[in-house]
Amino acid sequence: MTTLTSPHDLIAAIPFLIGYHPTNSLVLVSLKDDLVGMAMRVDYPSLASIEKSQEPYELLVQHVVREGAQSALVVAYVPDDRSDGEEILNAIATTLVRADVALRESLLIVEGRYRSLLCSDVHCCPPEGNPVEEITQSRVAVEQVAQGILMPLDNVETLVESLSSLPLALDPGFIERVNEFSVAIDSQTLHADQKDGAIAVIDLMSRFIAGSVGHNIGADQELSARVIGRLSDIQVRDFALGSHDANTLDTYAVMWRYLMRIAPCGYIAPLASLLAAVSYESGAGALAQHCIDRALADNGGYSLATLLRRVFSAGWPPEAFATLRAELHPKVCASIFGR
């Protein structure tokens, strides 16, 4: 994520960080060495939840602490029928101070206008606030799009829809092809199938990197069916989990999302879990959680999805998860390729 130098930059960055334009929300963004880390969004707290808990923001702040953040940015998207935005932001600020995390910005957004609670200059921060500018006019948006990152979706409903199945997932011929590549745990060709699956992942990613996906629909669907089917094996899935690096993370996210949306029922969970993992590493915590929902809807007992939900809920720093994944990958490669 680009450097954030103004309130407008922060407001423009948040939809990119969580994947959609939030409303009725609290968003906390962690900073480490002035670099943007994880963005965490929660629903704007109800009056009942505030009255029930004396420390309603403790858990939110603890996620920032576990990530090793030195400072944080907070934005409250206040519902139209509420007027307690300042009180809530001040309570979060107090919780951050107790946790020894510096507050770099605290923004209140009400009815299309924003105001910084840390700015006392009425010329730049008038009591009535400043209008929230169109995201397309921001420097942040220009830089993100230039890097190949898609514009944020309108709302969380649109985000969920962007993860839903495409018509190909219901095509009988495609389903049959995927089933042919499915890996049985007692298969006499198990090792050969695992190796074929790992190679298929590499081959399909090479096409995505080259931008050639879609040029040959038949070949792409054949290779996609092969990858989806082979990912039914845990070793192939773990190989896929460790295949990306910082340079290819965004491209893998595009590939896993595409495959997840064309995967037939029963094959979605591995792909949704892979997309959750790369989303979490890139700081898109909200998208990662919705991917886990998609995985568990397909397979309620899928072990990787359950593990990732625990990791996300515990507030593991994305760097720690990436390190663990990278340490596992050579062992998986040795098992599959025999070296």
What are the key terms here?
339 residues, alpha+beta, Cytidine Deaminase, domain 2, 2 domains, 6-stranded mixed sheet, 15 helices, 53% helix, elongated
Outline the structure in words.
- The chain is of the alpha+beta class.
- The chain folds into two domains: 7-148, 3-Layer(aba) Sandwich (Cytidine Deaminase, domain 2); 167-337, no CATH class.
- The chain is 53% helix and 12% strand.
- It is built from 15 helices and six strands.
- It has a six-stranded mixed beta sheet with strand order 2-1-3-4-5-6, with helices on both faces.
- Helix 4 (85-98) links the parallel strand 3 (71-77) and strand 4.
- Helix 7 (172-181) crosses helix 9 (217-230), helix 8 crosses helix 9 and helix 12 packs antiparallel against helix 13.
- The longest helix is centred in the middle third of the chain and has 21 residues, at 190-210.
